């Protein structure tokens, strides 16, 4: 497909962050799950940074009750900054200021937990009539893997919507939305024929799982407004994308970028722990000592 100069550029990102984080209780009883630290910064900051690095500095966060800490983290704290400056702690001051200088961040409540589709629909007034990105806070994409920029390029090229896909073991596909795809000749992306939410392994059309990155045409809002509650009595974004996948013309069509890079699911306890270890081991200030300790520790583990 060829590009269209009349198509609007992707400028805005929506980050749904209203979930309760029950898989991390009791840690998330009084703390939003998005504020759980990955090394020395909250998981949500990695996601906002990813959006900004892709050129999306207008960020809307869909929050819920007891999520005030998210707003506080990205706000300025003059007293703290002054104290750090007076103490000569320039590195800490720089890190604190960086979080509040990332971009223009807005907040909107999702009063009723009615699913991801409903959370995306809440962004309609802010986004308006232009394509936009959706980044789920549980998925951390390694900063060295430029997934979102590639997805934006595919959206601008096709004029449809784009989802990120990742190959998973067939027995794990029931934990994800699953895509039925057709290759597009001469292109790095695929055409999505249909999407199934959390199919059984024997009924799954592929082992391609939908992961938490989307670049959506604004027509998705009209579809979501007319999408009844589905699985779990929630408005599923997957159902709306299924409708768009079979729609012709501008705004129709759903495409997939198959991601082969590094992804960490911070909504899963084991993956969250792995993310902390991997990212810390690659840092200059922590890596050498941590890797040396890991080598000693693994030698002390019992053999299988």
UniProtKB/TrEMBL annotation:
<dbReference type="GO" id="GO:0006011">
    <property type="term" value="P:UDP-alpha-D-glucose metabolic process"/>
</dbReference>
<keyword id="KW-0548">Nucleotidyltransferase</keyword>
<dbReference type="InterPro" id="IPR005771">
    <property type="entry name" value="GalU_uridylyltTrfase_bac/arc"/>
</dbReference>
<dbReference type="InterPro" id="IPR029044">
    <property type="entry name" value="Nucleotide-diphossugar_trans"/>
</dbReference>
<protein>
    <recommendedName>
        <fullName>UTP--glucose-1-phosphate uridylyltransferase</fullName>
        <ecNumber>2.7.7.9</ecNumber>
    </recommendedName>
</protein>
<dbReference type="Pfam" id="PF00483">
    <property type="entry name" value="NTP_transferase"/>
</dbReference>
<keyword id="KW-0808">Transferase</keyword>
<dbReference type="InterPro" id="IPR005835">
    <property type="entry name" value="NTP_transferase_dom"/>
</dbReference>
<comment type="similarity">
    <text>Belongs to the UDPGP type 2 family.</text>
</comment>
<dbReference type="GO" id="GO:0003983">
    <property type="term" value="F:UTP:glucose-1-phosphate uridylyltransferase activity"/>
</dbReference>
<feature type="domain" description="Nucleotidyl transferase">
    <location>
        <begin position="12"/>
        <end position="279"/>
    </location>
</feature>
